[in-house]
Structures are given as structure tokens and as C-alpha cells.
Amino acid sequence: MRFCILSFLCVGLLPALVVGEGEIPLFDANQIEAIRTAEGQTIRVRGLIERTGKSKGTGMNFLNFKGGKLTVVVFGRSLKNFPKGEPADRFTGKRVQVTGKLEFYKEKPQIVLERPSNVILLDNQTGEPVKSAERKGTIVPEKTSAAPNFDASEKKKSSRGKVDPRIYFDDP
Q1: pLDDT (tens digit, 9 = 90+) per residue, 31-80?
Q2: Considering only CA atoms, which of 89, 84, 106 is closest in space to residue 52?
Q3: Confidence of residue 170 (pLDDT cuts 50, 70, 90)
Q4: Burial class (CB in 10 A: 0-12, 13-18, 19+), 96
């Protein structure tokens, strides 16, 4: 039993402690030679999505960084994870940061994107992350006290008749 626990700690938790979010290498999309050396690794790439495309047969989406040397691929099976719209429609002309595993297809580097959380929109001027679209323009409600104070005249009357509590509780 002790061996199992020790094995779990070594195999399961130790890699999580050693490799943190801050250690994922960050590349500019035009650093293609440096990107090529990271094959099989999870990387972050920043750049402008210049061209996009969709496969009619499979629904696959393609996002090409400026210069066309690195492609982000979203397979048709992953499109269900993008409820706000297909990536090819949403990210054309946008500066983004994409996180994912670097692979090669026909000797061309690509990152397979499966979740919208792996794409961060960046401001074109500053390069800083842009607040998510869901938060833009939303009104934050004012905080209210835990027990709201209702006036008796404001209470809604139930459209149903009164419930006989004897149905649910035993009478003593």
C-alpha cells in the first residue's frame, strides 16, 4: 500500500510541481526556426492570424499566422467545444496567443487546438490579453444584503391554492 502511495506521489504529482504554467516556452510566430526545435512540446505562440480556412468535408478549421509558416488546426470533432462560433470565423485578423502541442504535418509545424481556453485574444497595440467578450459590456449587479427587505405589498401571490400541510406532515 505504501508503495502505491509513493508511486502516485512520484509519478502523478512530481511532474506537476516541476513543470508549471510559467515554464511553457513562448514564441513569436515569426520565430519559425526556434519553434521547429520544440517538436512534441507544449508551447505558446503569439502572432497575427492572417488567413483562415475551413474544410467543407470534415469541418476542419485552419488558422494561419502571418507569414503562413505555422498553422493552428481545429478538427471537426472539436468544434463543439467552441459555442461562440468557429475559430476560422472568430480569429481572422486578430492577434492571439495559442497554447498547444507542436506537431508536424507534411513537414509543416502546426498546433492542434481543442479548447477555446487555449486561445487568448491580444490587443493589437499593446500585445496584452484582451478581456473576454463575455465580460465586455456586462453590467455588474450591485451587492445586496443577504436578507432582502420586502414590503408585504410587493409579495407575489401564488396562482395555486393553499397547500394543506397535513398531506406532507403527520398531525400530532
Answers
A1: 999 999 999 999 999 999 999 999 998 999 999 999 889 999 999 999 99
A2: 89
A3: low
A4: buried
Cell reading at 21: 504554467
- Extract the C-alpha cell encoding 41: 512540446
Instruction: Supply 125's cell numbers.
Output: 497595440
Contact 85, 125 (CB under 8 A): no
How far is C-alpha 125 from the chain's CA centre? Answer: 23
What is the CATH class of 20-122?
A: mainly beta
Q: What's the predicted TM-score (pTM) here?
A: 0.63
Q: With beta carbons less than 8 A apart as the criterion, state whether 109 and 40 touch.
A: no
Residue 96's identity, in one-letter code, is V
- Among 3-7, 17-21, 109-113, 160-164, the range with the most confident prediction by mean pLDDT is 109-113
110, 104 in Cβ contact below 8 A?
yes
As a whole number of angstroms, the distance between CA 63 and CA 94 comes to 10
For 117, half-sphere exposure in the C-beta direction (CA atoms, 13 angstrom radius) is: 0
Question: Count of CB atoms within 10 A of residue 130's CB?
Answer: 16
